[in-house]
Specification:
Layout: E1 13-19, E2 25-33, H1 38-51, E3 57-67, H2 69-84, E4 89-92
Parallel strand pairs: 2-3, 3-4
Antiparallel strand pairs: 1-2
Helix pairs in contact: 1-2
């Protein structure tokens, strides 16, 4: 708890990559994708694109418990990055 007696929000996002034996790379998202977490999410997408050039990337967002406007923007920007690198990028819920 903080000094005001209110609980502090703990921002956490876990991104886990699962390789689909040469098919799509599936990233599972768990936690919150908000303005506090978009940097780490973007880094994970960039790394996935670099490590798996030309492969399809699927973001499984079923584990997200919170998504704000910054998180939505990050998903759209990552979609553009992946497309520019020749990777198909999809989001499942």
């Amino acid at each position: 708890m903080n000094s005001s007696g209110l609980g502090e929000s703990v921002h956490t996002l876990r991104v886990r990559a699962l390789d689909d034996d040469g098919g799509a790379v599936r990233l599972t998202l768990h936690g919150e994708l908000d303005r506090e977490e978009v940097g780490g999410f973007s880094d994970a997408i960039r790394a996935t694109v670099r490590e798996h050039p030309g492969r399809a990337i699927t973001c499984d967002a079923r584990g997200l418990r919170f998504l704000d406007a910054a998180g939505i923007r990050a998903l759209l920007v990552c979609h553009e990055w992946a497309g520019a690198a020749g990777c198909r990028f999809t989001i499942t819920t």
